[in-house]
Amino acid sequence: MLKIGDTLPSATVYEYIEVEGNGCSLGPNAFDVAKACAGKKIAIFALPGAYTPTCSAQHLPGYVQAAEAFKAAGVDEIWCLSVNDAFVMGAWGRENAAGGKVRMMADGSADFTRAVDLVLDLTAKGLGVRSQRYSMLVDNGVVKTLNIEGPGKFEVSDAATLLAQARA
Fold first, then answer.
1. Known active-site residue 55
2. Which residues contact 161 (CB under 8 A, 6 or more apart)?
3. Contacts for 21 with CB less than 8 Å, ≥ 6 apart
4. Distances (CA, A) of 54 to 20, 113, 120, 162
């Protein structure tokens, strides 16, 4: 399982880009996690699924609202990571005014989630393989803080907790 001090693996995630530019085409674009984190300080939070109750009501909105505070704390980017496809993540981001604040990263095949060993198996509930709920601060690809939630919990991966860690 991923731990503080680990380097993030080279896995592909996807982001739905709405405006063509900066080497990105319109629609889903692939990003290698290790390359995308190089030379940057990134706040990453992962959750079981787009449009799910806690994720929609608290998790994502908290990071959208705190985006400027994260920038002031020296964080270059905020990523929301979920085992959903890029179209779903893009639509969910639009509905939550995440544009320019939180990058909505899709791990549709759970490749990154498996690589960091933070899989949440919800097949018994008809939801398939998902990501555990967690947050982390990554500096140049290295995990500096890691907050993994217990099953069904939302206590340590919220924006306020990670922001306090980014400011420390």
1. yes
2. 135, 147
3. none
4. 32, 19, 16, 17
When divided into structural domains, the chain yields a total of 1
For the entire predicted model, the pTM comes to: 0.94
In whole angstroms, what is the distance from residue 73 CA to residue 53 CA?
A: 29
pLDDT above 90 (res 18): no
Residue ranges making up the domain that contains 81: 12-167
Q: pLDDT tens across 80-124, in order?
A: 999 999 999 999 999 999 999 999 999 999 999 999 999 999 999
Separation CA 102–CA 168 (nearest Å)? 21
- Residue 56 included in any domain: yes
The CA distance from 5 to 142, in Å, is 6
Nearest C-alpha neighbor of 136 from the set 109, 121, 151, 116: 116
CA neighbor of 36 nearest in space, from 113, 105, 117, 132 = 105
In a domain, 64, yes or no: yes
CATH of the domain at 127: 3.40.30.10
DSSP tag of 117: T
Catalytic site residue from 24, 37, 55, 80:
55
